[in-house]
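ok so for the tutorial part 2 we go from a plain amino acid sequence to predicted structure tokens. step 1 is just haveing the sequence, like this:
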Amino acid sequence: MPSLIRKTINVTAFACIGFIAACASKPQLPDFKYTDEAISHARKSFRQSHKEILFLLMVDRDGKVVKSQIIDWKKDDLKRTNVEKFKRSTYNIEFKPAKDSEPDYRQLFYPMNVNSTFEWR
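step 2 — the prediction. this is what the tokens look like for a chain of 121 residues:
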């Protein structure tokens, strides 16, 4: 019986070490760096537009979205749960690859329209 406990402990320890190694190998993304004034200005412009959701995106050198944050949305038109679904879709957006002179991670405000039309058959 003690040998079975020892094997279980060894397997558990091996699994934990593998999990820690996998987590440590992922690059740490920088925090978003925008001032409150810049966010306030983006919100004001967004409120005056016909867009429905405002995101803050972080894009890597390859043009892939690696981080997404909801800044604002038209609350009369959309529920929070639906906005979260659209947030997940922002990771499918691709931008032009970065030029050599650009930073590794670019940040931008991204206003989005939501197409909510239905086709009746």
